[in-house]
Structures are given as structure tokens and as C-alpha cells.
Amino acid sequence: MPTETSIPVSSPVVYSATSAVGICSQLLRIDSSNYGSAGGGDESKVAEYIMALLRSVGYEPTVLESAPGRANVLLRVPGTDPTLDGFLVHGHMDVVPAEADQWSVDPFCGDISDGYLWGRGATDMKDMVASTLSTLLRWKEHGTGPRRTMVFAFVADEEADGIFGSGWLVANHPEWFTGVVAAISEGGGVPVEARHVDGSVRRFYPVSAAERGIAHMTLRATGASGHGSRPDADNAVTHLIDALGRIAHHAWPIALIPASRAFLEGTTRALGIAADLSTDAGIEAALRDIGEDLRGDVRPSSRCSANPTVLRAGYKVNVIPGIAEAEIDVRTVPGTEDALLAQIDLLLGSRVTREFISNQPGISAPLDSVWFSAIAAAIVAHDDTAIVLPYCLGGGTDAKAFAKLGIVCYGFSPLGQDPDGRTGSGMHGINERVPVVALQIGAAILESFLTEV
Ligand SMILES: [Zn+2]
User: Fold this and answer.
1) Mean pLDDT of 185-204
2) Pairwise CA distance, residues 420 & 117, whole Å
3) pLDDT in tens, 9-41
4) Most buried residue among 36, 165, 193, 326 by CB atoms closer than 10 A?
């Protein structure tokens, strides 16, 4: 392996090829775009890079291919205390595609400028993959390692439901996760600053301890096909849009699970906000008062949601089609799945049926656990002003697949605070970038956690 990277930098600083920044830069230069059902993905080049890096220091990783080009890299590192439960660190190697003409840099440049490392995947999640790899290299360098046995899974296909990655591993190679009881991956550990009512700044590190479920559905309305001039027709399109209108305008009630409640209690207390979380109005007020940056994922995860996203019907203006279809993206607060489906059926009415495209219940991990305590301790060790709080992720990650094995999953892909106030941005958007200093501190936080947990 080279000892230094050739990252084009605007500063004279040279980053070691084995540092988190150097590794992340090299990962960002490998295009691992995942087009989902529209064109698939290919993580093989990232997998080759990771395999070579790990082998160069004496690890013996394994590649498991779920399909041509769809590689997953697995590594088991024995702990010094065999009586401790096993632990999983998983990170996805794929990225969402980038529309290069909208970016101000090449999305696969991996360059550093203005204090940022730029490229698709810089915040989702080649940053954490790099921090994980740098920890593994430093363990070898210093002849150390984890206390508990750790499984490292660098997986394919997270950006398209994990069919070739986490889902495939759990279904086909569960033996890799024998003895594992807890896991971390993306979904938290990134600092968010907010102002106390006295004007001073507080720094929070939300850590995901739950995820809403995903219930993607196809809706289908049927009616009498016929001439478009016919009055009072039994019209499939009308049946469908009536149902969609009811769904789109339904006000889903507040449903706070313990992680969401702990987040609101912790943030309002730390910011000096008087909050009454015993009523829906009080919860709404708290969500408003903690500010936009902290609300982020917390507002969506405080209730279920259902958004119409796809419509299919008809082929000619004077022909009434016999079938009209739509797809809706439904997200469920953990534990509300049955009530949600009953409500959806009421809203659909008698003329529209539903069928799941994907149905993955929400997950939640204990808040009062050695895992959460160790996460908080690792963050505080590098930022003694940190306020570490659990929250519920509004979207979904590979954690849903690993949770099926009984593994409790936390979202902890740490970054540090950039002293000049830079923050990571562009996730799934344009000009994705991570502050260099944030990545360096994040790698140190992750190394502390993985070494000490
Ligand atoms: Zn991701």
C-alpha cells in the first residue's frame, strides 16, 4: 500500500493513506452508485480496495458475493475477553447516484478544499466506513484490538433495500453473526448545535435507538372501462384519486415512543425550554421550540406518515381505463403497525385494494443499555460538553435486516465538531461533503468506542 495519498489539497497538509481522511478520499474516488431496480449497482471495486487494505496489515477478510458485482466484505476480529457478547459494525459501500452536472466538483473526486472532503458518499456513509477501517489498521499498528469479538460487515445495496447486502447476508449467512447481540452503523453521532434560551450554545449528539418501519404499498382501483363521454361512470381513476386524497390529507396522530420522548425531554431541558410533553399540543410546541436543526428526523418520527408517490392509469383521453394504480410510501412508528393498517383500510374505502411492495416493521433498541452508555462515554471523552440523546430515525437503514437476528441496533457513525462551524451536507443531494476535522475527530470517537466497548 502507498504510505501517502495523492489527494489534491488546497492546503499543504498531507494525509496518510491509512488515516480516516486518506481512506475516505480513496473510497470516494470509486464510483459505487446504486441505481436500484433501474440499473443495479456494483460495489466490487470498493470491496477490492477494502480487501487489499485489510490484507496489507495481516487481516483475513472474506468476500461474499450475492450476485455478480454485488460484493460484501466480512471480517471477524477476536476480542481479548471471550466471555463478552459479540458486536457488529456494519457499513454500506454503495452510494446513491449523483447528477454530476449539478455539482460544483466531480462527484467522484475525493478532493479536499475549503476544509471539506468532497464526493458522493462523504456523509452517507463512506465517512464511517473509512473511520472503521482506520481503527482496524491502528489496532494492527499498535498490536491492540477490541475487548469483545467484533464482526465487521461492509455491505452492498443499502440504498436499494439491501436485497444484495444486509438482507441477503441475514438470510444466507447468519452464521457470521453468531454470538452478536448489538450493532452500530449510520444514523447518529453527528453534532448538532442549538441555542439555550439564554443565548448560549449547547451541542447535542443524537444517536438513533429506533427506526420507523417501512410499508410501501401498491393501491389498485377497478371500475368499468368504457367510453370517456359516458356520464356517471364507474371510474377506476376517480375511485383511486378519492382514496389518495383521503390518505394524503389524513392527520396522523402523535405517537411518541420512548426514544422520541427522551430526545424531546433532553433537548428542551438542556435548552431551558418549558415543555409539557403530556399533551399533543405540548409535544407540538416542543418540536417547534427546539428549532429546525434539532427537529430534523425527530418531527417525522413522532407520527406515522403516508405519501402518494407513483400514479399509473389510462392510455387515451377518451377511454376510461378499467384499472388505476398508485404507490404510497407509508412509514410506521414502531409498535403502531396494526393500528396504521386498520386506518389505511378505512381511508382506502371499498373500491381500492392494497398490496405490499415492502413491509418492514419498525425497530427499537433499549435506551438504558451498556451499548448506549458506551456510545455516550466515547463521545464525551472527545467532547466534554456533549449532550448525547437517543432518537428515532424517520427513515430506514440496514439495521432492520440485522435486527431480525435479535441484534439490537444503534445509529452511531460519529463526526466531531468543526471549530469553524462547517457541517457535513449534501446527503442524497448535490455537493456532498464532510468537514475534514469532523471526520478526524469522528474517527477518534469511533476508535475509542470500538476499543473500549
Ligand atoms: Zn446510508
Assistant:
1) 96
2) 15
3) 554 466 888 999 999 999 999 999 999 877 789
4) 165
| Domains identified in the chain and CATH numbers | 20-187+397-452 (3.40.630.10), 214-248+307-360 (3.30.70.360)
Rounded Cα distance, 406 and 225, in Å: 49
Q: 106: which 3 cell numbers?
A: 466531480
CA 183 to centroid of ligand 1, rounded, Å? 15
Contacting residues for 200 by C-beta, under 8 A, at least 6 apart: none
Residue 441 pLDDT level (bands cut at 50, 70, 90): very high
Please name the helix (run of DSSP H) or strand (run of DSSP E) that holds residue 284, with its range, or none: helix 280-289
Alpha-carbon distance 452 to 87, whole Å?
A: 12
Contact indicator for 69, 7 with CB cutoff of 8 Å: no
What does DSSP assign to residue 101? G
pLDDT, average across residues 106-114: 96
Residue 226 Cα to ligand 1 midpoint, Å, equals 47
Distance (angstroms) between ligand 1 centre and the Cα of 162 equals 11
Evaluate whether 47 touches 93 at the Cβ level (below 8 Å).
Answer: yes
Mean of the pLDDT values across residues 142-170?
Answer: 96
